[in-house]
Amino acid sequence: MTGPIDSLAMWDATMAFPEQVERASLAELSFTKLPAHEEIEHVVVLGMGGSGIVGDVMLSVAGPFMPVPLIVCKSYEPPSFVGPSTLCFALSFSGDTEETVEAAQTAALAGARMVVVAAGGELQALGESWNATVVGLPDGIPMPRAGLGAMAVPALRVLEHVGLFPGARGWIELAVEQLRHRRDQLSADDNEARSLAHRIGRTIPLLYGGSSLGATAALRWKNELNENAKMPAFTGTVPELTHNEICGWGQNGDVTRQLFSLVLLRHDQEHPQVMRRFEVVRKWTEEVVAGIEEVRAEGDGPLAQLFDLVFFGSVVSLHLAAQEGIDPGPVPILDDIKAAMAQ
Questions:
Q1: Architecture of the structural domain at 31-166
Q2: Closest to 329 (Cα-Cα) out of 152, 153, 93, 142
Q3: Is the dihedral of CA 123, 125, 126, 127 positive or negative?
Q4: Cα distance between residue 169 and residue 24, in whole Å
Q5: Spatial contact of 208 and 246, defined as CB atoms under 8 Å apart
Q6: End-to-end CA distance of the chain, in Å?
Q7: Which three-class secondary structure state does DSSP give residue 292?
Q8: Are 96 and 108 in contact, with CB atoms under 8 Å apart?
Q9: What is the DSSP letter of 210?
Q10: Spatial CA neighbour of 56 closest among 180, 211, 169, 183
């Protein structure tokens, strides 16, 4: 029996996630160009796709503890309030993401204190010209989505250094511990991720997460399913979806139960009322979807739980790709879009 098609070694890159996070936590960073804590009134994170998800990680993990607001911007334009009191992260794996490059230039011209995370490209060159804090990325990461740890961990360490997220290093160490534990589970031939992928099959996954942490996990699952398995997937957030989306299950159950699988991404940071709302969601959807699955985060602390869910979802997406004989690495349609936009 031959193994799955994997021209870019996405399986190896995914299973090395614990080491990627650990190396990023130990890498030497220069903090000399960063502003003092009292000079920062807000934090803005610029990025798209596999780089932009880092902003969602920062918001869901560090945001609740920060004394200033953190805003994630996935577009060509940063918020109009950006200025000298803004700590602005510009994240682009390639360094050439056009939306991020343009937004970062606007922010830098407005006087924002810039932090650039990139593997090179135009953004890295601009960061050096701005005398910004520039964080490079290690070699050997095949695609931006496989570099989440290498990009997110330095960003969290910057927040810790400027006093906006005390204790980040401790949370990172707990995340590495949990990721290794989860990898041991998912490396077995008969593992939960493979079984879940088999049950999802060719249905369309609906990924529901609770509050900010769960919403970030759901978005990451969606992105991984889209890019690795080349399949559609959609997200919803509890409690918001219990004020609108839940109404959409009122009819067409004969159709939806053939098409959709519901995957609930649960974690220990959920508000008690969010927990109760998940039970309502189960009650009102069990007759109109092909199946309801639940994946519960493990680990100590919000970062460990988020990365645990993220890791699990990445492995599920790879199993779904393997089931259909799909190469998880290349994403030719994204290359076509870039080429079209460059004309």
A1: 3-Layer(aba) Sandwich (3.40)
A2: 142
A3: positive
A4: 11
A5: no
A6: 44
A7: strand
A8: no
A9: E
A10: 211
Q: Do domains 31-166 and 192-323 have the same CATH topology?
A: yes
Please list the residues that pair with 292 across neighbouring strands.
262
pLDDT at 4: 86
> Helix H segments across the chain?
10-15, 17-26, 49-61, 98-109, 121-129, 148-161, 168-186, 192-200, 211-228, 253-259, 272-285, 302-323, 332-342
- Domain residues of the chain, as ranges? 31-166, 192-323
- In this prediction, residue 43 carries a pLDDT of 98
The two three-digit tokens of residue 1, written as one number: 């029996």
Mean pLDDT in each 10-residue stretch from start to end of the chain (343 residues)? Answer: 82 98 96 94 98 98 97 98 98 97 98 98 97 96 98 98 96 98 96 98 98 98 98 98 96 95 97 98 97 98 98 98 97 95 90
What is the C-alpha to C-alpha distance for residues 339 and 311, in angstroms, rounded to an integer? 31
User: CA-to-CA distance for 279 and 281, rounded, in angstroms?
Assistant: 5
Structure tokens, 11: 């399986």
- Taking a C-beta distance cutoff of 8 angstroms, is the pair 182, 308 a contact? yes
Considering the domain 192-323 in this protein, what is its CATH number?
A: 3.40.50.10490
Encode 34-66: b = buried (16+ Cβ within 10 Å), e = exposed: beeeeebebbbbbbbbbbbbbbbbbbbbbbeeb
Is the preceding omega at residue 154 within 30 degrees of 0, hence cis?
no
Tokens standing for 81? 């309030």
**259: phi then psi, degrees, rounded to nearest 5:** -105, -40
Determine the pLDDT at residue 2.
52
* pLDDT tens, residue by residue, 321-331: 999 999 999 99
Region of residue 132 (phi > 0: left; psi between -120 and 50: alpha; otherwise: beta): beta
Preceding omega of 79 cis (within 30 degrees of 0) = no
SS3 (DSSP) at 145: helix
- Whole-angstrom distance, CA of residue 224 vs CA of residue 246: 25
Instruction: Specify whether the CB–CB gap between 102 and 76 falls below 8 A.
Output: yes
